[in-house]
């Protein structure tokens, strides 16, 4: 999920996130900038349009109610010299920066996958790519009762691989 868009970021925000990446700090994930800790940040990645965070949630929460991430940055004073630090990340419904919404796999799609595929998708380091592929399902077809979602997944994977690598 997008944590900081580069087009709106100030240099001290960028420095704070870069410091967090360099120090490999364990950063908590909270709810709406409160003391309620929901999980933690696993990784922060810099992309062309901003910084993105991967996170885990240890508590039951509806992501759709809090579909954005918001960085909590403070200035740390060390002998009169200030260092910006990323101290936490919040799940929020009202981000201060114009960040992208958290992408979520529709529950019907995710729960229809065989358990072993769900586990592999969760553990895979590029699970977001798989989740994006899963969201290409036609939602109307999934809501029909007698649809083999595993077969739809198989067809989408084949189509994706053909586009990406060519061949049969």
Can you offer a commentary on this structure?
This protein has 168 residues and is an alpha+beta fold. It contains 6 helices and 6 strands. The protein has helices at 11-23, 107-112, 115-123, 127-134, 139-143, 149-165, and strands at residues 2-5, 28-31, 37-47, 50-57, 68-78, 81-92. The chain has a 6-stranded mixed beta sheet with strand order 1-4-3-2-6-5, covered by helices on one side. A hairpin with a 2-residue loop joins β5 and β6 (81-92). The protein is elongated and about 60 Å long. The chain starts with a strand and ends with a helix. Residues 137-143 have low confidence and may be disordered.
Give a concise summary.
It is built from six helices and six strands. With 168 residues, the protein is of the alpha+beta class. Residues 137-143 have low confidence and may be disordered.
Layout: helices, strands, pairs:
Elements: E1 2-5, H1 11-23, E2 28-31, E3 37-47, E4 50-57, E5 68-78, E6 81-92, H2 107-112, H3 115-123, H4 127-134, H5 139-143, H6 149-165
Parallel strand pairs: 2-6
Antiparallel strand pairs: 1-4, 2-3, 3-4, 5-6
